[in-house]
């Protein structure tokens, strides 16, 4: 029926009498068309935390493993099961009126459909189709043979033997419930298909997700940071950072004041997304590894930064700066920083807040730092007049009458 209206267990009148607000019931009603099981429509992100607090649900109850609001309201498993069939259906065509048993084979799927479904394609049905197509193909077939959960080791062995006999060049199998989670499952019972598994038709149980709440570490109201003005490919970019008390990065702000409103808005939203990730504990190194060398316009020569002289995009420039300033990463720099007076032999960012990070990195590298210094001197001799690579932005070296990049292998002018 896809509605809470009507008679039977779990209806809108009972829910209102139990203390749910009209707004919360309406949200559940709207979600019914998008869920596979009734319990999913009563998850906390649908009902709303305020509505749950008004009901009296405690935070520790909400975060408990396997928490179900309908059980908390006093509905038995049998009542929820009956209401689920009435409202969300059985997720199978088996048992539908006016369909004869002899016609059901047309609708068979790779796995059983819903809790009430019993029909499914046999493993050999998959293999038979592959065997029919294999003689017309030079390579193997990218197709998975789906197996029921109760399939035995001997049956799997026989499937491979039969596939070999039929001339199939490769075979991939998947036994239902063999992993702790999977994209699609037919059961919402206590153990799912496999023991200990609680996947409800493609959605992991809400209780499991809420048992591991993320915590956002907010920045102080007054915080330090720096503002860096530069031009990337002729486009002026302002980068501003916000820091925690220990000097670690907690937020960024980006402004490209001469670009159109759409790009400015996208950059602002991107900065907000990065800031939220940092405050929820995503390591800055993950962002630096992900976004450096991202290539799109504007790109090219960088003016305004003493160490970064070329970048493949504005995003690439931003994370080169952040990696240098907050992680002490100097591999992305075209101009290496001068040695710190307090730590002879250790290139260090100009900012004192990351000097400790740079020193730690230098201690890990050990003698490798001296080797890199010798290599840098060599590059200075052979590439004093070399341009930056137009692909990755690293310094190039002379290669005959042209230049090549030792970082990405790009050749500038020569084949």
Q: What proportion strand?
A: 5-15%
Distance between the termini: 68 Å
Low-confidence segments, ≥5 residues, pLDDT <50? Answer: 190-211, 343-347, 355-368
Structural class per helix/strand content? Answer: alpha+beta
Question: What's the assembly state of these chains?
Answer: single chain
Number of helices: 16
Question: Can you summarize the main beta sheet?
Answer: 5 strands, antiparallel
How would you describe this structure to a colleague?
The chain is an alpha+beta fold. It contains 16 helices and ten strands. It has helices at 12-18, 22-31, 38-41, 44-47, 49-55, 59-62, 69-72, 77-88, 123-133, 153-165, 206-210, 261-279, 284-291, 314-327, 355-365, 367-382; strands at residues 144-147, 172-175, 227-232, 235-243, 249-255, 300-303, 310-311, 396-399, 402-405, 411-412. The strands form three sheets. It has a five-stranded antiparallel sheet. A three-stranded antiparallel sheet has the order 8-9-10, with no helix packed on it. Helix 13 packs antiparallel against helix 14 (314-327). The longest helix is centred in the middle third of the chain and has 19 residues, at 261-279. It is flat, with a radius of gyration of 30 Å. 25% of the residues are buried. Mean pLDDT is 80; it is low at 190-211, 343-347 and 355-368.
């Amino acid at each position: 029926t896809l509605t809470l209206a009507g008679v039977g267990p779990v209806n809108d009148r009972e829910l209102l009498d139990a203390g749910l607000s009209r707004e919360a019931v309406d949200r559940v009603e709207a979600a019914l068309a998008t869920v596979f099981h009734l319990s999913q429509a009563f998850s906390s992100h649908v009902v709303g935390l305020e509505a749950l607090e008004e009901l009296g649900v405690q935070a520790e109850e909400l975060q408990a493993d396997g928490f179900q609001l309908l059980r908390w309201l006093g509905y038995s498993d049998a009542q929820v099961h009956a209401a689920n069939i009435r409202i969300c259906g059985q997720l199978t065509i088996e048992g539908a009126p006016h369909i004869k048993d002899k016609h059901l084979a047309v609708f068979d799927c790779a796995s059983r459909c819903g809790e009430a479904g019993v029909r499914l394609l046999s493993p050999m049905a998959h293999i038979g189709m592959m065997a029919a197509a294999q003689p017309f193909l030079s390579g193997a077939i990218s197709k998975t043979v789906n197996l029921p959960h109760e399939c035995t080791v001997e049956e799997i062995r026989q499937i491979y033997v039969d596939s070999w006999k039929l001339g199939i060049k490769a075979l991939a199998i998947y036994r239902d419930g063999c992993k702790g989670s999977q994209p699609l499952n037919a059961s919402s019972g206590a153990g799912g298909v496999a023991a200990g598994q609680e996947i409800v038709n493609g959605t992991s149980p809400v209780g499991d997700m809420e048992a591991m709440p993320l915590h956002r570490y907010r920045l102080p109201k007054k915080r330090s940071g720096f503002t860096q003005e530069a031009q990337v490919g002729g486009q002026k970019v302002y980068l501003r950072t916000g820091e925690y008390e220990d000097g670690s990065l907690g937020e960024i702000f980006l402004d490209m004041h001469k670009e159109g409103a759409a790009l400015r808005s996208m950059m602002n939203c991107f900065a907000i997304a990065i800031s939220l990730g940092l405050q929820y504990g995503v390591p800055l190194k993950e962002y630096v590894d992900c976004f450096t060398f991202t290539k799109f316009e504007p790109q090219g020569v960088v003016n305004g930064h003493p160490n970064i002289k070329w970048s493949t995009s504005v995003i690439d420039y931003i994370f080169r700066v952040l990696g240098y300033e907050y992680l002490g990463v100097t591999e992305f720099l075209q101009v290496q920083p001068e040695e710190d007076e307090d730590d002879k032999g250790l290139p260090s960012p100009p900012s004192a807040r990351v000097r400790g990070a740079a020193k730690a990195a230098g201690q890990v590298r050990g003698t490798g730092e001296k080797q890199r210094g010798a290599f840098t001197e060599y590059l200075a001799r052979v590439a004093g007049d070399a341009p930056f690579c137009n692909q990755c932005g690293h310094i190039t070296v002379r290669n005959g009458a042209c230049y090549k990049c030792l970082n990405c292998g790009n050749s500038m002018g020569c084949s």
